[in-house]
Amino acid sequence: KAGVTQTPRYLIKTRGQQVTLSCSPISGHRSVSWYQQTPGQGLQFLFEYFSETQRNKGNFPGRFSGRQFSNSRSEMNVSTLELGDSALYLCASSFALAGDGDTQYFGPGTRLTVL
Amino acid sequence: AQSVTQLDSQVPVFEEAPVELRCNYSSSVSVYLFWYVQYPNQGLQLLLKYLSGSTLVESINGFEAEFNKSQTSFHLRKPSVHISDTAEYFCAVSETGGYNKLIFGAGTRLAVHP
Lengths: 115, 114
Description:
The structure holds 2 protein chains of 2 kinds. Helix content of chain A is about 0%, strand content about 50%. Chain A is built from no helices and 11 strands. Chain A has strands at about 5, 10-15, 20-25, 30-40, 40-50, 55, 65-70, 75-80, 85-95, 105, 110-115. In chain A, the strands form 2 sheets. In chain A, strands 2, 4, 5, 6, 9, 10 and 11 form a 7-stranded mixed β-sheet that branches. In chain A, strands 1-3-8-7 form a 4-stranded antiparallel β-sheet, with no helix packed on it. Chain B is built from no helices and 12 strands. Chain B starts with a strand and ends with a strand. In chain B, about 40% of the residues are buried. The interface of A and B includes residues 33, 55, 90, 105 and 106 of A.
């Protein structure tokens, strides 16, 4: 079974631009979560989607948004990029049958560099 | 709100020695507990998790962790480490009913030396 895939793996943008990252979950998984990983702040939860609905959101500004499609694939968008948005963005998927406590399977991440 | 504290940012150890990576958490509600490992340039992989039942949980590669409710701890141990265990280890909690939102600790870098 294929794992979680994220595209692109690396991205370089300049301040003020916007970016869209994509995540394809493991087949059959309906929940997709996004995390930001930086050396200073560590791993921080961005948001979680289940059946195209955002169920939970972290403490990030409105510039960070996401969506989930009917096939469970998810995208996250960051508008008006700032230097501090440089990070590894990780996507994770799970069955979410029980609602919580499910094992989350992480993708390799997208490394975003903002110049 | 929950928080996770990993007490050691780096742990150097010699091959075949035992190791303990410490994790304490704070929460006003029931939580699930997880240990994830991250190898260089890769995503996170689940090592083990505690949901309920026996407080001692084991992974397939020799790691174990014990949930201690009174001390709000979930320390990770391995009796004999290998060079291949060199990685960053993250402790995480999720609130029951919290829709899989993971709160991570800052991570512990385990460096196994020959």
